[in-house]
Amino acid sequence: MLRMRQICLVAEDLDAVEADLSAVFGIAVCHRDPGIGRFGLHNFLMPVGNSFLEVVAPKEENTTAGRYLERRGGDGGYMVIMQCGDIAAARERVAGLGIRLVLDMPGEESNGIQLHPKDVPAAIAELRWNAGDDDLAGPWGPAGPDWLPAKRTDVITAYAGAELQSGDPAALAARWSEVVDLPIATGTGGDPEIALDDAVLRFVQSTDGRGDGLGGLDLRVADRGHVLAAAEERGMKRSDDRVDVCGVRFRLV
User: Fold this and answer.
1) How many domains does the chain have?
2) What is the DSSP letter of 61?
3) Binning pLDDT at 50, 70 and 90, where does residue 237 land?
């Protein structure tokens, strides 16, 4: 089992992005984690179906997230956090590939590893096991103790994919394929893809001048009209199947 359970974005203005996401996608905050204060950050998480969208922002100088904002020229994608059924096997596989860890987070209820972005480029990849993983709407440690009351599905219902961009998409796909131990296929647009249990990782050519990164997300929508009207009102609409929020291309499927 391997699910795209959480996506993390990074922003300069946390409150402004929260307002945009709530207005455009009809989603609500389920948790704010005071523990990430030790990294000089503050955050919020919002359920997207049974997965989550997290946004972090620096609240002090000289943070890793702050340097990332500078390097990529503003708000954008930051992390892809995948829920796996066997964290011990994932640890062994990552170690065998010689990949360094940014964080090792062992625990009895939630247990994970963050991989070094110099070894696995484009986004910080995290592999995490959580107790109760047999339940699609089950617990998820980073989302706090009671996330279900904040779940909203009248506008968007789930993630369908994440778009990782690079100057060499084929090489990037090959590296992520090693990490997740899943094959590469060719998507309908001709780009390499890796199918997780609930979403697709798509690897595309970087064309926006921002370099390697998590450039896009695919969302399953229940009310496209709401998304487009709210995005147009806030100056975010790009087409009938795309809006841009927090430096990320959200494609409506």
Assistant:
1) 2
2) S
3) confident
